[in-house]
Structures are given as structure tokens and as C-alpha cells.
Design goal:
alpha/beta; two-stranded antiparallel ribbon; 8 helices; 14 strands; globular
Length: about 290
């Protein structure tokens, strides 16, 4: 938190047209996006970045490949958000000079890791990340390995992590299934509120309060992600057909508690048709 104005300083990676920013700043004036990055490598014309700048202005916005942006150019912040691409997160090498890890070139999860790692004691207290629903189940040859790498990496950086795979339509919103990952640095205000891990996951936590659920019978699992990141990449869940991760869970010190969640919601429902702009108002070139 910024002690001068009590704003929550946000950095938005893989910003697209600003979905995280719209949600956060629409929810509370406390959120202040101080820096963002959007780069589309497959095209010279950076449409999403242009839309972002048109809506929010150029100040604090970066339109460069995040692989080329030094951590020193990213301002210190309280909350890091981003919808990073779903790729192969396997570890390609161990960096003896730093003890860190390096993924395949261009795999953007490792850029999140790199920024958090290089920020050191100034790394953000909170993370809010988003990915496709299949991330807890990939790759097909080693179910759950990618997600285990992400969780173990964040644990080693000092974060408690919880996640939910949510079909937002089950909670009345015009979106489909995505995986949401929330991280709390162990010394953060929220992390200090976690007394009983199971109660936090089922009832008391941020995700449980936002998206209430009923646990599916006989789906709770409790296990530890063991070994170096390289070993997790090589060995996690090898030879098994199913992922050990349920669609809701929490990890503390690499100890995982997860369960399959059944949505529990009764309230207003909004469909995609309710929010789409009428075709007659859309320019013909689109």
C-alpha cells in the first residue's frame, strides 16, 4: 500500500485492452494502475495497445516485448495482475549464476517469475493472474505438471496461493471457464488472516467469498509438491492419468489442499447478448 494516498498500486502485464484495469478500477477507487505492458508479437500493428492507450492514456503504458523490459523499468507495486498465455512451462535450464530457473524462450510465465524474483524484497504483496481452465490438467503427457511448476515457483518466492476454475456463467456473468490464481505474500495483511487453511478454502477466503461453492463429495486431496523446480518439471505426476488438482485449492509452503467445487449461486444473470453493442453501431470494417 502507498502510505501517502492509500492507493493499491497495480502493474498490469499482458494487458490486452485493459480487462483487469477496468474490473479493478471499476470496483474501487483504491486501485491505481501505474504501469502496463501489452505487446502482440505476431503483428506489426499493435491494435490492443492502441485501444488501451485510447482509453487510459499513454502515461505508464509500455508497448514492448516483456522479455526485453528490464525489471528496473517496472515501478514497485502492490498488486501484479495479468492473463499470461497458456504455453509449455517446462524448465529448460538451471541458471547456476543465480540459482534461478529459465523456461523455453518466449514462455511468458517465466517473465512473471523473473520480475517477482528480481524485485526481491520489493516484490508485490499480491498477485491476481488468469489462464485457461485446462492449465490444471496440462500437459497430456504429465497431468498437472504445468500448474505444479507455477505453484512451486510462487511458493519458493514466498507466496501463499489459492485458485479457482470458474465458469462465470454459473455466477451470472457473461464469460466462460477460466482459471483465476490469487497470491498473497506471507507477510501481507491478507496472508496473516489465514488461520485454518481448509476454512479459508471452503468458507473464509477471498475466492470462497466471491464465488461460494459446495465441495463435491470424495474429491478433496492433500499433497506436497516436492523437489527442485527442475525435478517438478521432470517428475511431477509422471505416469498417472489424472491431475491431482481439483478446480479449487490453496497452497501454503508447497502443501496443497484442493477439492472440486460445485457453484452455489442464486442471483441475477447477465448473458453475452446483454452487453454486446448493437451491430448497427459497429463500424463496417470491424
Amino acid at each position: 500500500m502507498d502510505n501517502n494516498n492509500h492507493n493499491i498500486r497495480v502493474v498490469e502485464l499482458f494487458a490486452g485492452v485493459g480487462g483487469f484495469r477496468i474490473g479493478l478500477e471499476g470496483a474501487s477507487d483504491a486501485y491505481e494502475t501505474i504501469w502496463s505492458d501489452q505487446w502482440e508479437p505476431s503483428t506489426k500493428h499493435q491494435d490492443a495497445s492502441l485501444v488501451y492507450v485510447a482509453r487510459f492514456g499513454r502515461e505508464g503504458h509500455c508497448n514492448r516485448d516483456i522479455n526485453t523490459v528490464p525489471t528496473s523499468e517496472i515501478p514497485d507495486h502492490d498488486l501484479l495482475v495479468g492473463g499470461f498465455p497458456c504455453q509449455d512451462y517446462s524448465v529448460a535450464a538451471t541458471l547456476s549464476r543465480s540459482g534461478g530457473i529459465e523456461g523455453k524462450k518466449g514462455v511468458l510465465w517465466w517473465q512473471i517469475y523473473r520480475i517477482l524474483d528480481e524485485k526481491g524484497e520489493k516484490r508485490p504483496q499480491y498477485l491476481f493472474l488468469e489462464n485457461v481452465d485446462r492449465i490444471i490438467n496440462s500437459p497430456a503427457t504429465q497431468r498437472g505438471r504445468d500448474f505444479a511448476i507455477i505453484l512451486a515457483s510462487l511458493s519458493d518466492l514466498g507466496y501463499i496461493v489459492e485458485w479457482r476454475v470458474i465458469n462465470a456463467a454459473d455466477y451470472g456473468m457473461p464469460q466462460r471457464r477460466r482459471t483465476y490464481i490469487v497470491g498473497y505474500r506471507k507477510d501481507s495483511t491478507v496472508a496473516r488472516r489465514i488461520e485454518h487453511v481448509k476454512d479459508w478454502l471452503y468458507y473464509d477466503g477471498v475466492m470462497a467469498n466471491a464465488f461460494p461453492f459446495t465441495p463435491k463429495e470424495n474429491t478433496q486431496s492433500d499433497f506436497t509438491i516436492e523437489g527442485t523446480i527442475q525435478e517438478v518439471s521432470n517428475c511431477f505426476n509422471k505416469g498417472r492419468q489424472n491431475t491431482p488438482f481439483g478446480n479449487a485449492g490453496i497452497m501454503v509452503d508447497r502443501q496443497v489442499l484442493s477439492v472440486d467445487a460445485i457453484p452455489d449461486y442464486e442471483g441475477p444473470i447477465q448473458t453475452l447478448g446483454d452487453i454486446l453493442v448493437n451491430e448497427q453501431f459497429v463500424p463496417e470494417e470491424f
